[in-house]
Amino acid sequence: MPKVSESDLSERRADILGAARLCFIAYGYDGATVSRLEKATGKSRGAIFHHFRNKETLFRAVAHRDMLRMTELASSRGMIGLIRYILEEPDLADWWSLRVEITRRIRSDALLRTSWEADQKALRQAVTARLTEQRESGRLRQDIDLETTIQLLELTLEGVMSHLDSDRVSDHLPAALDLVEQSLRSPDAVGDFDDTVTVTDTALVDADRQ
Amino acid sequence: MPKVSESDLSERRADILGAARLCFIAYGYDGATVSRLEKATGKSRGAIFHHFRNKETLFRAVAHRDMLRMTELASSRGMIGLIRYILEEPDLADWWSLRVEITRRIRSDALLRTSWEADQKALRQAVTARLTEQRESGRLRQDIDLETTIQLLELTLEGVMSHLDSDRVSDHLPAALDLVEQSLRSPDAVGDFDDTVTVTDTALVDADRQ
To answer: I need a surface site. Which of A4, A25, A103, A122 has the fewest CB within 10 A?
Structure first.
C-alpha cells in the first residue's frame, strides 16, 4: 500500500466526521448503528475505527468540532452575530439536534461531559473577550454585570436554535433579537429604533472587524 | 367485578399519565418499551392500553397534559412569571426533556404535530391576552410589535428550559430575566435598577392578580 500523507489522513478524518455527524443527527446516538455509520461515511467499520477508537470517541470528536465552529463564529461576529448567522443559514439549524443528543449523552459519558464543558468554557471566553472590548469602547452598557450579559445572550442563542429545530421560524425573530441587542447597548449608542442599519452595524454585530 | 366510577377511571388515567411521563423522560419515546411502561405505572399492558389505545396515543396525552399545565401557568402568572416559576421548581426542569422528545416525534407522528400545534396556539393565546391587558394598562411598551414581544418571551422560555436541562443553572439567570422584562416595560413603569422588588412586582409578573 502506498504511504498516506498527513494531510490525506486529516482529510479522511474530516470526511468521516462530517458524514457521521449527519448520521447522528438523523438517527440519534443509539440509532446511529455501525452499519448506518458505514453507509453514511462510505467507509468500512475497520476504516472508521482506524481513525476513531470507537463510536463514543467518534461522537465526542463530532461534538467538539461543532463547538469549535460555534466558538470561531462567536469570536469573529459576536454572539448576536452568530445567532443572526444561524438564522440566515438553515443548514446550521441541525446544530440543535446534535446539541440535544450531546445533552443526553453527557449524563452517561463522563469524558464527553469533560470535553463539552471545556468547549463551553472556550466559547464563553471568546464571548467575554469580545464583550469586554465593546464595553470598554462604550458601545455596551456597563451597569449590567458582564456575566448577566453573557447569560442573556446564551439564553437567546439556545432559544433561537430550539425554535429552528421545531420548524418555528417566525418573521419576528430578527426583531426579537434587536430587542435583546438594544437592551444591552449603551444609551449613547442607541439609534433610531426604525434604523435597522444602525442596529446591525453597531454593538455586538461587528463581523468586519475581525 | 365491581363497577368503576367515572372519577376512579379519571384518577387511574391520571396515574398512568404521570408515571408514563417519567418513563418517556428517562428512556425517550423509543426506549420506553411496553415492559418499562408496565413497571413505571405498576399496571399490566392490558390495563394501560385499556385507557390509551397504544403507545402513540399515550405519548400524545402526556404531551398534551404538559402543555395544558404550561398554559395555565402562563395565563395566571404571565410568561416571565412562568419562567421564574420553572427556575424555582427544579422538578419542572424535566419539561424540557419531554419537549425534546415531542420535537423529535412530531416529524413522524402527524396527529401529535396537529395536537401540539393546537396546544402551542392555546399557549400563545393565553400569553397574548395577558400582554394585551398589560399594554393597555400602560405597563408594557406599546412601540414594540405584540408578536415581537411574544417571540422574545418564547425564546427566553426555551433558552431557560434548555439551560436547566443540561444542569447549567447559573446565579445570573434571574438577572438576565430582569433584563428581558425591562426591555419590554414601558419607560414610565421603569423603576430603579437596583430595586428588584419593583422589577418582580410590576409588569409581567403578577401572580397575585389571578
So the answer is: A4
